[in-house]
Structures are given as structure tokens and as C-alpha cells.
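An instance as discussed:

___
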Amino acid sequence: MLRFTASLPFDQRLALYDISGSIVHVQMLETREIITREERDLIIKGLGEIQEEIEEGSFPYALEFEDIHMNIEKRLTDKIGAVGGKLHTARSRNDQVALDMHLYVRDEIGKIEKQLYQLQETMLNLAEKYEGVLIPGYTHLQRAQPLLLAHHLLAYFWMFQRDRERLQGVKKRTDLMPLGAGALSGTGFDIDRAMVARSLGFRELYENSIDAVSDRDYIIEFLSFASILIMHLSRFCEELILWSSTEFSFIELDDAYTTGSSMMPQKKNPDVAELIRGKAGRFYGSLLSILTMMKGLPLAYNKDMQEDKEGLFDTIDNLKEILPLFGEMLQTMSINHKNLEYAVDDDYLCATDLADYLVTRGVAFRDAHHLVGQMIAYCRSRDIRLKDLSSDERKKFHPSLTGDISHLLDPKRVVEARKSRGGTAPEAVKKQLELACEKLRG
């Protein structure tokens, strides 16, 4: 039963947050004359020694004391005697655990936000590096229209920007101080919650003691953020996997981020990208787990809520490993310019511009769309491209197509024509880059 209910095997990472919260708590108790100055100093000295033991790896963890909080309190009592028991005055494990979790999540959010910011910087650097490179754009995984590679990369920059803004919102709602809520109804001692909040750098207090100990919204929000972010990363990884395949050969991933086959010597497997893609299911599982766990709980604290930690810890650990690794993989990949040029030279990608040209000659777009579709079907049946059609052949489809239409079938000129805001034309992408830089620096 003890092994089943104990959280010590996974909540040890909260130890230093527990100590910092306890130090501020005991300082507050002394200012309110709930304990003496001598008792305060003795408790803080003991907590300092315990912190050193934890940092040095010599702390004697014991499963019989169930969690990290009771382990620290027991060790403190062993060191300084019965006065150690005064540390828990005016608090419950419910608000103590809640405080530790808020401190931990707030701290980790700061680290992850920095990593996400660095990934966005990588995206901007790559967009600038490949500013003039054309790629085929896809819908339904079918070649659609030519694009600038920089434009494609910037699409992910904006996804990551929304992710970072979501994370900032999570941080705001994590920055609430629960200590002083007691088990659920507050405390009869004359405590100063505002002092504790200021000392620990919290923006606001929980104004309802029941809410303070039963709230896990900030964890759910963090896991929601992480799930959306891993979805974006997974989509990107899927494209890297496709682009690095023999069938595409648009890019080559560095050997440091791929593996060979144990049997087939020619293989170069994109294992890092595949594993990041696979992690998405793990992140979603953690989110669904806590949503399901919380949905039927009456107020206030229930033991079920101990299940809020392992999925969160796992997600944070994986995310902090994935973000820098993904950025490094992008920085070291190489572009196969020859294959990209060949793929973009497929002038079927310019079919929309040919239809638009007919519209400028008075043809309704739906009719123009149909005519160009017939031309492409004709070309495919003869295994030729649009530019291979003779003037007489084009005339059969529409008289306006008898002149020189080579400019309509030039992928570079097709890209340059997309000048609308947010488009793929070089001048539009340059403005987008400037806006992205402003957004990131702002």
C-alpha cells in the first residue's frame, strides 16, 4: 500500500522548491510572532543543511515518509529536534504541495520559453539563408504552386510564435500563490500571505482557499500548450522525413541526427525526426490523463490529484530535450539545390497563372480553370510539359494562348507575382521577415 500511494519516487525534483517555500513561510511566521526569532533561525539553518545534502546527493530519502515534503520535515526534526515540527504551523500538505508545483512549473516555463525563442531565431536565420531558394508547395501532398523555401520556413515561425504566446499566458496563470489556503479553508493563525507572495516573486494570490488547493488548470494549460507545440514540431518533422527520402531528395540531414540500418548499409534513417514525431502521442496522453482525472473530482483535494505530476514531469523533460535538438538538426541540414530546381521546373505548378492569364483575356475563371485542366490532361497523355506545346496546339484550347506565354510558365516569375501581404514573392517575404523579427524582439 505504501509503494502504491507514495509519490517520493517522482516528486523528489520538488525538493529545492519545497525548501525555498519553507524558508519564506518560516520567516513570515516569525514576523507575525507565531514562532520566535531563535526558532526561525534554527529551522532555516537546518533547511540549509538539508539543501546541501540534496545538492550533494547524500540526502537519506525514505519511502516510509511517502513524499519529498515529509522526508524533508522528518530530516529537519532529526537535525534540530522538536522545534522542526513548528515549520508546519499554519499550513497543510495540500497548500504546501500546490506551492511547490507552482514554483516548479513557473521556473520550467521560463526555461522552455527561452528554448522556444531560440528555435524561432533559428527559423529566421534559415529563412534569411534560403531567401532565394524555390521549392514546390503542396496541398494534399500533391505539387501545387512554387514557393520560396523562406516562406515555407516562416510558416513554422508563426506557429511557434503562437505557441510562445500561449506559454506566456500559461505563465501568467501559474504565477498565483496558494500557500495559506491550508487544507481547504484557510488558517486561524494571523498569517501574511502577501509577504510570502512578494518574497517568492508571485504576481497575485489565490483569493479562494478551496480553489488554491484544488486548481490544476495551469498544469492542464501547460500540457495543452505542449501538445499543440509538439503537433507543430511533428508536422515539421514529417516534412523533413519526406524531403530527405530518396523519392524527394530535397534535403539531407546531418549524420549526427540520423542512424544507419543494422542490416542495409545504404540506409540513412531520420531517427531524431521520427522520434520527435512519435513523442506527440506521449504528450497527448499526458494531457488526456489529467483531463480525465480531474473531470469527476469534487472540491477540494483528492488523492487522485497526485497523478498530476508524472505526465507533467515527463512532458517537461522531453520538451527541454526536443527543442534544442530540433533546432540543431535544422541548422545542420543541407539543401539539394539540383533536385529542388528540377522539381520546381515542373510547369504544371504554374497552371493557376495560366488560368489567371485567360481571365485577363475575358474568360470566366471557372471556364479558364476547365480549359487549363484540359491542356494538362492533354500534356499528361503525351508525357510532355505545358511549355512543350506548340502554338497551334495551344490555339485549340483558346486563341489567346497562341502568343508567347513562356513568362507564365516560369516558376520564378510566378513566385514574384505573389506580392500580396503574406504572399510568397521575395518582396512580400522580406517584409514578413522584418515583421517576424519585430515580433520576436518585441
